[in-house]
Amino acid sequence: MFEIDYGDDGEVMCSGRLDASQCAKAQSFMDEIADTRTLDFSRLEYISSAGLGILLKTQKRLAESGSALRITNVNNHIYDVFRYSGFNAIFDIKAKE
Hints:
By secondary structure, the protein is an alpha/beta fold. It has 3 helices and 5 strands. Strand 1 (2-6) and strand 2 (12-18) form a beta hairpin.
């Protein structure tokens, strides 16, 4: 199960597992983002390569207008996925505090 929605402060709250079966839901939400946004991963348990692809596509689209995605509250496992894939050089990522 994967959930994505805006939090009270405008951050995008992601929870559950972002895998291939949830990509349509995530892509639909990300397509509506038009400016710099922070994604809160404090409740995200897992991200697959398909999920990374959605984030990369969104980041590239936003970069064309000078915007970007920022990712906060990333657990160690998900940070390792970003690091091993080289995505830590593409995104501004903050570990879980």
